[in-house]
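Lab intake sheet, docking and co-folding queue.

SAMPLE TYPE: protein with bound small molecule
LIGAND NAME: zinc ion
LIGAND FORMAT: SMILES
REQUESTED OUTPUT: full 3D complex as structure tokens
PRIORITY: normal
SUBMITTED BY: R.K., bench team

The fields below were copied directly from the construct record.
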Amino acid sequence: MSEHLENLEHPENIKKSEASKKQSSPKKHRKKRDAIARFNLLSRWRVRLRKRLRQLKKLTIIALVILIVGFLLPERTVNPVLGATDKDWNKKSFWYYPWGRSGAHRGVDIFGKKGQPVVSATDGFVVSVKDRSLGGKTITILGPKWRLHYYAHLNDRRVHLGKWVRAGKIIGHVGRTGNAVGKMPHVHYSISTIFPYIWQRDNGPYGSLKMWYVDPMPRL
Ligand SMILES: [Zn+2]
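RESULT FIELD (auto-filled):
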């Protein structure tokens, strides 16, 4: 026992124990510092995440409002070929089958004189102005209810991409561009929907595609 005490009080032992204290103290300190740094980092991440979630919530609400407003906007429609009467299109035109490369005719052909004014059938944004092999000179306008109004075979176009147009505004003139070359001048007019109407699907020719289209004839 006395030998043990002696050992403890031996100057060499005291030095050793102090040295070990000196070693353990910075170690503990470092650990504490690391823990604080980790905690701070986590807090920063948490704050950032909360901020991002708030932004995401705001964006989702804005998107939902735009979506709902789009559906609620009244859809005022006019005949896109100025002066056309119901003798200028065939009543069986919509989803007529078989119809060339498109399979079924997804719109209505409104016949007119070359150069007869073509107006926008609804209010909306011009979302596409394109030259296509089948459609020739075409315009697509995004109107109320998230529906796309497509005008093809135009002779010329009077609107540019991104323009807001009112129903009845002249957007071009009747022509026979695209695969209407050599045929009677007419406008191919179709209405498609961004949000599909799945209840419109049926087992007829190209019936699964019907959910993307609206029959334009009742609106003419
Ligand atoms: Zn057509």
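REVIEWER NOTE: Residues 105, 107, 109, 188 surround zinc ion (CB under 6 Å).
SIGN-OFF: pending second check by T.M.
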